[in-house]
Write a structure and sequence with these properties.
single chain, mainly alpha, disordered C terminus, Serine Threonine Protein Phosphatase 5, Tetratricopeptide repeat, 0% strand
């Protein structure tokens, strides 16, 4: 058992230094000596995930959670792998188990919402995001995902309201300005859309979305000029 622990320690060092192939070999040596070592299976899962081998990652996370049924990190990582392999229905089960083990973890709740979106269960996803906002009112991603989903559903007024809530808790955040601008844009309120596109460009001039905002403002000006020329 002492030799297995030595292999595990070396494997952890390899993994933390992004030497995943070396870590895999060393974790496997640890597993050969101790078939019930949860940490070795979990470490293998993390390495295979980094290497893009999700099939083996899933296998090892499943082994880890079987050996330790109250292993939050194991179920959480298992859920992420299922999402990465387009199996959101399986991800839902993993994240529900993770949340049962750690009800206050905002990342697990967020991923559950994303999994429901992957299953085209928008209503469930919105419920999860709202619960996340209520449980963790300072967790920015909860607002962002809820607002984004509302926009996809065409509920621009409600999405705008969520972005405004986000600005209250994160006044230095710039992304809500872009979201609010797009909502007003979709609602046909050009004046407010221009106002918020302008705020967005002022606060985040290097954003990848800056060109979209500039194009929309140019479009508004062009439409206004055309209207004036017709008077």
């Amino acid at each position: 058992m002492e030799l297995a622990k030595n292999y595990l320690s070396k494997a952890e060092t390899f993994r933390k230094n992004d030497m995943y192939q070396e870590a895999v070999v060393t974790y496997l040596n640890a597993v050969l000596l101790d078939r019930k070592d949860v940490n070795s299976y979990f470490g293998l899962g993390l390495c295979y995930k980094k290497l893009g081998n999700f099939e083996k990652a899933v296998k090892n996370f499943e082994l880890a959670t079987t050996l330790q049924p109250e292993f939050f990190d194991g179920f959480y990582e298992l859920g992420l792998c299922y999402l990465a392999t387009n199996a959101p229905n399986l991800a839902i089960k993993s994240f529900i188990k993770a949340i049962q083990l750690n009800p206050e973890n905002p990342n697990a709740i967020l991923q559950l919402g994303i999994s429901h979106e992957g299953c085209d269960e928008a209503d469930m996803a919105l419920m999860v995001y709202q619960k996340l906002i209520e449980n963790s009112p300072n967790f920015i991603k909860g607002y962002e995902h809820k607002a984004s989903l509302l926009m996809c559903l065409g509920d621009y007024k409600e999405a705008c309201a969520v972005y405004r809530e986000l600005l209250k808790i994160a006044p230095n955040s710039t992304q809500p300005y872009f979201g609010i601008a797009k909502c007003f844009d979709k609602l046909g309120n050009k004046t407010e859309a221009q106002r918020y596109y302008r705020k967005f460009l002022q606060t985040n001039p290097t954003s990848p979305q800056k060109q979209y905002a500039k194009n929309r403002m140019t479009k508004f000006k062009s439409q206004k000029s055309n209207c004036l020329s017709l008077v």
